[in-house]
Amino acid sequence: MEKRVMTDGKRRKGLVAVAAVLGGVLTLGACGGDGGDDDAKNDGHGSQSQVDEAAAKDASDAHIKITPKAGATNAGINSDTKVTVSEGKLTSVTMTSVATGSTVAGTISPDKTSWKPSGQLERATQYKIRASAEDSKGRKATENSAFTTVSPSNSFIGNFTPEDGSTVGVGMPVSIRFDKAVTNKKDVESHIKVTSSSGQQVVGHWFGGDRLDLRPKDYWKAGSTVSLKLDLDGVEAAPGVKGVQEKTVNFTIGRSQVSTVDAESKEMKVVRDGKLLKTIKISAGSPENTTYNGQMVISEKFKETRMNGATVGFTDDDGKGEYDIKDVPHAMRLSTSGTFIHGNYWGAKSIFGSVNTSHGCVGLSDTKGAGDSKTDGAWFYDNSQVGDVVIVKNSKDKTVQPDNGLNGWNMDWNQWVAGSAVGGA
């Protein structure tokens, strides 16, 4: 048998070829292989393109969308958050606070195409959401997102009166005080609506940049219901400051009661539903400290309260209050600056109906401790409610300012409408 001997050149070429093949195999094992033929990449499971195509065919048609978008840092706390799905049905949605891990309650719609939180979110809080859905073939889809709600420094709210569900007098305006100054008054006011079952037109009036009062031209109709709707979520009050409120408040107007104090004759006539109910002797402000004239609305009631002259500018030479009565009975506030109509037990009974002696309040005969229901002070307190009107006339003082308390009725209708940012529309 003939033995063939390989030359060194042929041997080197063979080693190079083997090395090249081995190198290709090693490369395939390490990186998945970009070179070589399809058979080299198959590995018994089909080509990469075939694998990708199979995966695409198996992907769910359900498309989940979470708002606000991932990474948002100024999200609203009411209606901004929502999960929706197209070409599928939601199977689960979980929303949690990142800081506390607490779960936010929410509801999937009956058709299983949307989800939203059940209540208001917290400000300046980071939340995460995980949502899952299935398409008509049962193929699953999952989406995750995280965002942060608006901070207190970048948001504003309105504190309002009267309270939801309350019954108030015919003079009660809707008064809203904002915790940030509003420069975009038109946009803010246009997202606040007050309507009445009486059909009365209601118009807002701005007192500065942080207070908006709304009322009809004349007193509310007795027995009517009034609705306040705050639709301020996302509304910009000033650059970088957005609203976070979505709220509806309903209150009832009670019977009509308007009481007129005549500082000259020193008596008050209480008229309810157009009929004289009672005439009461009073003592108004002294000649040195007269009582404001005008239409004033009872804004607060206290069975007993402390009154210190120092809090309203009545001080002696030592800087102490000219008076400090710790248990004034049956007191009802008429102005922010300190005008009340209240019981008086420290004055002689003879002053009522005969002499004005107060520091500007309207005094009614009463007893210490507010325990005698037969006194004029107790009777008026028991028969009055927040929102009732007390008119003072024939005093030697000026008319109370419309923004000193809830006393916008002292402004005529044209002036009132002129203070609306939306023109009374």
Automatic annotation (TrEMBL):
One of its GO terms (biological process) is cell wall organization. Pathway: Cell wall biogenesis; peptidoglycan biosynthesis; Glycan biosynthesis. Residues 257-393 form the L,D-TPase catalytic domain. Residues 103-123 are annotated as: Disordered. The keyword Lipid biosynthesis does not apply. Pfam families: Big_10, YkuD. SUPFAM superfamilies: L,D-transpeptidase catalytic domain-like (SSF141523). It comes from the Bacteria. One of its GO terms (molecular function) is peptidoglycan L,D-transpeptidase activity. CDD domains: LDT_IgD_like_2, YkuD_like. Coiled coil: none annotated. One of its GO terms (cellular component) is extracellular region. Residues 103-117 have a biased composition (Polar residues). The keyword DNA damage does not apply. Keywords: Acyltransferase, Cell membrane, Cell shape, Cell wall biogenesis/degradation, Lipoprotein, Membrane, Palmitate, Peptidoglycan synthesis, Signal, Transferase. The active site is at H342, C361. PROSITE patterns: LD_TPASE, PROKAR_LIPOPROTEIN. PANTHER family: L,D-TRANSPEPTIDASE (PTHR30582), L,D-TRANSPEPTIDASE YCIB-RELATED (PTHR30582:SF2). This is L,D-TPase catalytic domain-containing protein. It comes from Streptomyces antioxidans. The lineage of its organism: Bacteria, Bacillati, Actinomycetota, Actinomycetes, Kitasatosporales.
